[in-house]
Amino acid sequence: MNDNDDSPERVVYVVDPTMGRDVQPELVTRTNTENECAVTGVVIDPADRQQLLYGTVTGPDGRFVGSYFPADIVRQSEWRVVTADGAEYPAPSEGHAVLALTTTLRRA
Question: Which is nearest to 83 in space by CA: 62, 61, 100, 60?
Answer without folding.
Answer: 100
